[in-house]
Amino acid sequence: MKIALAQLDYHIGNFEGNLEKMLGYVEQARAQGADLVCFGELATCGYPPRDFLEFDDFIRRSYTSIEALKAASSGIGIVVGSPTRNPVVEGKDLYNSAYFLYDGEVLGVQHKTLLPTYDIFDEYRYFEPATEFKTVEFKGKRIALSVCEDIWNVGNENPLYTICPLDEMMAEKPDFILNISASPFSYDHAAVRIHTVRANVERYKIPLFYTNHIGAQTDIIFDGGSIVMSPDGQVFDEMPYFEECLRVYDLEEVTRGGRTAEQPKEKVQLMHDALVVGIRDYFRKLGFKKAILGLSGGIDSAVTAVLAAKALGQDNVRVLLLPSQFSSDHSINDARQLAVNLGMQYDIIPIQPVFAAFEQALQAQFAGTAFNVTEENIQARTRGTLLMAMSNKFGNILLNTTNKSEMAVGYGTLYGDMCGGISVLGDVYKMEVYALAEYLNKDGEVIPQNTITKPPSAELRPDQKDTDSLPPYEILDQVLYQYIENRKGPRKLVEMGFDEALVARVLRMVNMNEFKREQAAPVLRVSRKGFGMGRRVPIVGKYLS
Predict the structure, then answer these.
(1) 148 part of the active site
(2) Is 327 in a helix, a strand, or coil?
(3) Which fold has domain 2-260?
(4) pLDDT digit string (tens) for 355-382?
(5) Contacts for 159 with CB less than 8 Å, ≥ 6 apart
(6) Which CATH fold would you assign to the domain 270-518?
């Protein structure tokens, strides 16, 4: 038997586009002699559809796609994910299902059992878990069909769940496992996926074929990396990351094993590739073409500009240089040089006259007060207004350049430098931004070296440095990582060796600035715990002990 895995970039709600793409890959699989082709979880409608699932027409159109795929299944099996209605009144209205189609018929439907409700997932909001587990017979083989999370409770070891779906199927002695997934990217998740697939194979001693999505759905990014694993626990193949792909495998060869083929998993390259895909798909799927951003001469805007040029093409990215009276000559020159290096259109609009007009307008009200963060924020909001004016006038979507360290501690101005349609670096700590800059320069200097080596500064007052307001990023990022990703509370952080006063200061900044993050642009997720859907913290909460 020859089994084709298709890892595709689906588009939520684009039923015609998703169907057309799958039908094309069915024909590719057929041409390569495949007996069976497998698509991803909820492939008909895209993942995660969220509250679109509450619209009856959305479900009706999912069924229409299944009918079209069923009609295309002459001589070739098709496995595809789609929502199905629950005929029982009690419980949720829908199942998250895997269909097995062949010769115009439905050979089997297996509903998803384990419905994740952690991090970015909220599936129990919509779906009823499966209670029946049956293998599918196809061309003399028994197939254990499963959906994504259903392989993540091997032998009931995951405390989130009380049942192991594949354990339930093993009584029917399947020949191999098929798992259709929509497994989101984080820079360390591919290794975790392989570990989980291997745990299943070692338990059941049969091959496992696992297919994943690629592409981005606003903030959530999918990396592909579909896996074929032999009964010996070796990765027979791991498909490319961030690339649509179809590959056909001979079941007998996979069963024999003796081959290992994994993709490299270098953190910075993965983050780079994910961010490029995130920008590209945000624009493509919303029908946008052109981006704009403020280029300050600092490292965050520089890295964002290079990533945007890679995702959209340099002709589709415009940058504004918005110097203030506090901007250094080298920052302006660095920003100009980067724009020249990238071949981007750039404009220079000094903000000092606009800032002076604000000062004049507020002179009576501010009389007797000293220059402070208020005046700094007026400058940032002036820049935001000018960028949004260009966005509105010419249709260039504004990219936000705030990094995760700044977003965590509130070192940014609402309605100023926090403006934007999508946050490119909001899940990338400052030290990781430096690593990305070095990666982007690996084949020659694109980002001026001075941008990378100079002390970071907002340049909103004379001789300002980020360290005037924040701990050094080398230390700050460590505290933030332990608090945000690893959920280490203040006592644990102190026990780990961090200064108690520093911990109290940093955590207070994080918690006090939740209101800013609630108003921020969607953040491209590249870590295990990004700001957004996957981190739900009360704005008015108090947690310092």
Answers:
(1) yes
(2) coil
(3) Nitrilase/N-carbamoyl-D-aminoacid amidohydrolase (3.60.110)
(4) 999 999 999 999 999 999 999 999 999 9
(5) none
(6) Rossmann fold (3.40.50)
